[in-house]
Structure formats: structure tokens, C-alpha cells
Amino acid sequence: MIPVTETFLFSLLTGTFVGLATGYIGSLMVLKKMALVGDALSHVALPGLALGLLFNFDPFLGAFAFLFLAAVVTWHLERNSKLSAETIVGVLFVLALAVGILITPEPELLEALFGDITKVGLIDTVLTAVISILAIFTTKIIYKKIILGIISEELAISSGIKVSRINLLYLLLVALIVAVGIKSIGTLLVGVLVIIPAASAKNISSNLFRYSLLSSLFGVISSFFGVLLSSYVELPAGPLVVLLGTSIFVISLFVNKILS
Questions:
Q1: Do 185 and 18 meet the contact criterion of CB atoms below 8 Å apart?
Q2: What structural domains does the chain harbor?
């Protein structure tokens, strides 16, 4: 039986909020055909984490600063060049990963890459909850505007929607929620949570409401039971969260085949 400690409860709550937010926000990422952007963007945080460790300030602040910068650079270059978001983030990803590995202190490198949810405390849990709820609420406000921009950018602009600004806001929300999830899931794996729940939901959803709802639900299930299993088998939570999410994705493929 798993001992119910404060650390265990904080880990469960943190994982649940991260899964909920990444699932919901990631549903748009998949619709925008930017799945790889969500994954690659998370790796950009590594140099920021390293600087936090080296200079003894909160690594979350360093991670978010680099993610914020990457989101703005991606948005700017996509608007002013012929490069796609995937290409731009891909370049930033390999650069950040190389620099991050070089400057991250070796003892903390594995934790930076794969996270350590056992070190999550009350302040981390409260911060994660507040940021996740704020990110979900903001995303809900702009959700339909982004969908209209996906269908037809010209139609969205003619309807008075500032597509470029909405896209920037969305990228910043992705950066924010990825930064929150890094401590528990790690830079290498948190980006996957933006993709897998949404991909699974897309396989079995017949409308937009069901799609966003299932994406959020699958994110919660993957994170919650990943952390739960981690405490039981004493293995890192991040990889287990991804394995559970992937299992849901495989099941959704079979369900889709049965329903179609």
C-alpha cells in the first residue's frame, strides 16, 4: 500500500493540474498541426534551468524566461520569414539542447531532463494550480478565435480577430504551462503531454467540445496514474506518464477502427 504523505499528495495534485492544462491547451496545438512545436519548445527551457542551478535562483524563472523568448522569436520569425513554426522551433531546440547540456551541472542534468516530482512542495503545487487554471481560462476565451483562424485566416481577420496577436498569446500560454510542468515531468518529456492526450482524443471525437474535453481528461489520467504508479514502483514519474499516455493513444486507435 502506498503511504499517503504530504509529498505524495502534492505530487498527485501537481501532476493532475499539469495534465489537465497540457491536455486542454494541446488540443489546439494538434489542430494547428504544430504538435512537434509543443514538444520541441519544451527543450528550449534547458539553458534557463541550468542558469538557475548555476546562479542559485529559481530554475522555473530561468526556464520560463527562455521559453518566453523562444515563443516570441518563433512568432516574429514566422510572421517575417518564409519559415514554418516547426522549422524555427527545430533550430531553437537543437541550439538550446546543446547549450543546456554543456552548462547544466552534471549532478542535476538527469533531474533537469526527466524531472523529479518527489521534490514538489506546497508552494509548487499552489503555483501549478493557479497557473494551470489561469492558462485554461485564457485559452478558453481565445479557443474559438484560434479555431476560426485555423479554418480560414482571411475570414478570421475580416471578422475583426487579430490573428497574429492571438497566436502570440497562445504560444506564450504553451510556454507558461510547459515551464510549470518541467519540474515534475522534465524538459525532455513535458512537451509530449501537449501532444499525446490531444492526439488520442482526436481519434475518437466527433465534435470540438468532445475533443477538448477528452484531451483534458486523457491528460489528467496519464499524469495522475503516472504519478500514482511512480510512487508504487519507485520509478521516475515522467517516463511512466508518457507510457500511460501512449497506451491511451494506442487504445484510441483501436476504438477509432471499431467505430469507423
A1: yes
A2: 6-259 (1.10.3470.10)
Mean pLDDT confidence for 120-131: 84
Give the model's confidence band at 187: pLDDT under 50 very low, under 70 low, under 90 confident, else very high: low
CA angle 120, 70, 100 (to 5 degrees): 60
Length of the chain: 260
> In this structure, what C-alpha cell is assigned to residue 170?
497562445
Radius of gyration over every alpha carbon of the chain, rounded to an integer in angstroms: 18
Query: Distance (Å, rounded) from C-alpha 90 to C-alpha 74?
Result: 10
Burial class (CB within 10 angstroms; exposed 0-12, middle 13-18, buried 19+) of 30: buried
Q: In the Cβ-directed half-sphere of 107, how many Cα atoms lie within 13 Å?
A: 2
Q: pLDDT: is 225 or 98 the higher one?
A: 225
Q: Look at residue 154 and give its three-state secondary structure.
A: helix
pTM, full prediction: 0.86
Question: 194 near 218, Cβ under 8 Å?
Answer: no
Residue tagged 542558469 (cell numbers):
51
Write down the residue that cell numbers 502506498 correspond to: 2
With cell 496519464, the residue in question is: 222
Distance CA 152, CA 64 (A): 31
What are the distances in angstroms from CA 136 to CA 2, 25, 119? 31, 7, 25
Task: Please calculate the CA angle 86-220-206 and round it to the nearest 5 degrees.
Answer: 70
120-136 average pLDDT score: 87
Predicted local distance difference test score (pLDDT) of residue 218: 95
Cell of 179: 515551464
Q: Mind listing the pLDDT tens digit for each residue in 190-236?
A: 767 888 999 999 999 988 999 999 999 999 999 889 888 887 887 77
